[in-house]
Amino acid sequence: MRKPRDYDSELKALDDKAKLLKERRLHQLGELVVATGADALPVEQLAGILTAAVDSSDAAAKEGWRKRGAAFFHGPRKARGRAGSDPRGASQGNGDAQSAQRQDRAQ
Fold it and tell me: What does the pLDDT look like over 36-85, one tens digit per residue?
């Protein structure tokens, strides 16, 4: 005889996982705002920029924004807007000996 499934606990586990994923996404969006330097803008201006982008139907503009965003993630650090910030959440020096030496020379 098979053991009956506990649907309530499975549903709760899925709900907990969904909440965790939503929190992670929200945190990553906040990191992106900081990494791009957009945290220096007034909240109203940032909200206006984002809603204008969402409402835009200009395919050429959206493609330009996509390319600029791709360059932000794949380009050199200088193109990222803020020195020392990494949109993936890693610090500037990741703890290896070379980055420690570079930081010592910079001081």
Answer: 999 999 999 999 999 999 999 999 999 999 999 999 999 776 545 554 44
The domain total for the chain is 2
| Cα 39 → chain centroid | 13
Neighbouring C-beta atoms of residue 91, cutoff 10 Å: 10
Question: Is residue 64 assigned to a domain?
Answer: yes
Q: Domain span at residue 24?
A: 10-40
Q: pTM for this structure?
A: 0.58
Report how far residue 23's alpha carbon sits from residue 15's, in angstroms, rounded to the nearest whole number: 12
Residue at 95 is within a domain: no
67 occurs within a structural domain: yes
Sign for the CA dihedral angle at 28, 33, 39, 42 comes to: negative
21-29 long-range Cβ contacts below 8 angstroms, 24+ apart: 28/89
Burial of 38 (0-12, 13-18, 19+ CB in 10 A): middle
